[in-house]
């Protein structure tokens, strides 16, 4: 054990708080019933781990850890979850017989391997300490390790991430059960049903602004609900102009009062 490994009182308190939060996040990842909660628990672990790197004066490694893993990889996980629509009922269905016991067996073997490796670990003194390792800068020190003795691990990790991105695309892909209707078939269907024969009104038609975010106006000047996207309505992102009109009137009133002073 080196002198750098001896922690002060404040560092010990910080370590135990961070370790407790990371263990809680790891347990949440394992036992959360909803996939979103599991992903957020993993994000908590990664953020705190990045903070620990920052506390150990590894500024570059801590910032990159938070930005890359929490801001990119975890967001990719959340996007995949939103795309494929994982539900609690689907995640509890066991489609492969015996895979749970096989997973427990592999987990136990991995745990024994980690315990044996950690038990034989020795903390040796680094010549010169952190000052010598960061003599050319923290970025150069990390690059020397990543592209030096750990280059194959780095390449394997990058290949794993690319494979995960391709797997996410495959999971999000849905096969069509029926052929996609063509424009001619849509036109024939509208005429046959006598519904929206001329098509739905486009946004911005006869409105004061010809924009996608402006609904079409009917002859009496009221907005046409048919020109509003159903997705925006489902997301409750449709708002009226009253709030903006009130803001404009308030600004005009303030300008008029200021001109009379």
Say how many strands there are.
Answer: 0
Compute the CA-based radius of gyration. Answer: 29 Å
Backbone shape: extended
Structural class: mainly alpha
H/E element order: HHHHHHHHHHH
* Low-pLDDT windows of residues: 1-5
Helix content: 55-70%
Could you write a compact summary of the structure shown?
The chain has eleven helices and no strands.
Structure, explained:
By secondary structure, the chain is mainly alpha-helical. It is built from eleven helices and no strands. It has helices at residues 9-31, 35-55, 59-84, 88-91, 99-119, 129-133, 138-146, 151-172, 183-193, 230-234, 242-260. The protein is extended and about 80 Å long.
Task: Outline the fold blueprint.
Blueprint: H1 9-31, H2 35-55, H3 59-84, H4 88-91, H5 99-119, H6 129-133, H7 138-146, H8 151-172, H9 183-193, H10 230-234, H11 242-260
Keywords, separated by commas or semicolons:
261 residues; mainly alpha; 64% helix; 0% strand; disordered N terminus
